[in-house]
Every structure is written in C-alpha cells, then in structure tokens.
What does this fold into?
Amino acid sequence: MTTFFATTTILSAIMAVGSIEDCGGHCIGNDNWTMFFIMTGIMLVSAFLTLYFQSKEDL
It folds into this structure.
C-alpha cells in the first residue's frame, strides 16, 4: 500500500502543476484551477496515507 500511495502522491503533484501551465503564454486564461485544487487535495491525502502506512510497517 505504501508504494501505491507514494506513486499516487508524485503523479498527482505532477498533474496539479500541469493543470495550471499556461502553454508558454499562448493560451492565457485557460488555466484549470479546479483540477489543480482537486489534485492538490489528492496529493495531500495520499502523502498522509503513505506516511501512515509506512509508520505501521515499522512496528
């Protein structure tokens, strides 16, 4: 489970940043802030679950 949530954390961080990329100025105003906040939320939850399951494995 730790590997799954760690991978999800990394991929959702990449997708969050990718959703607000402005195409080098060619498509200004088409930033997807809704997807950014959703992916940021998924990233934070996955990061917490990664640490939780990782600490459980150490016991």
Remarks:
- The chain has two helices and no strands.
